[in-house]
CheW-like domain-containing protein (Tectimicrobiota bacterium), 163 residues
Amino acid sequence: MPRSSAPLTRSTHGQIICFRPLDLPTLTPPLMCALSISQVAQILHAPVCLPLPGSAPAILGITLWQHSPLIVLDLAWCLGGSPARVSALPRLLVARATTTPTYVGLPVQPDLCIRSLPLPHRPGNQPLPWQAALFRGQFVLENETLVIPDLDRLLLPQEPCVC
């Protein structure tokens, strides 16, 4: 993989939650996803996820969150990975899109972290095995590639989407 010679720059202020979706393909450098901390409502530990027969392939199932049903979206599958296993949800990140109050559960690995912005980074230009319309940005950090998924696009597609 060619490395950019562009110097690392700093991004804007705030905080992000970095996570790895379940069953995301292993890439070099390692890949992490991130959302603004303002989009994340809660992180649940090993919730029960019930399958929804007849639902779209991107929907793993449904769980109960704050006394209401919550759709569990297979982010790894949407982004080109293997389908996640419904029976193995170590963590569920409950997040909302930026333009709507719609919440969704995203199965993630337990190694989540919060990072303060600005982060030193370079713009990413590595080809990724996903539809470019499904993420807002790609950034190269010192030891990993950081991808910002577009929850608005994943939840409310304006045109046909792989999900």
Summary: The chain is about 5% helix and 40% strand.
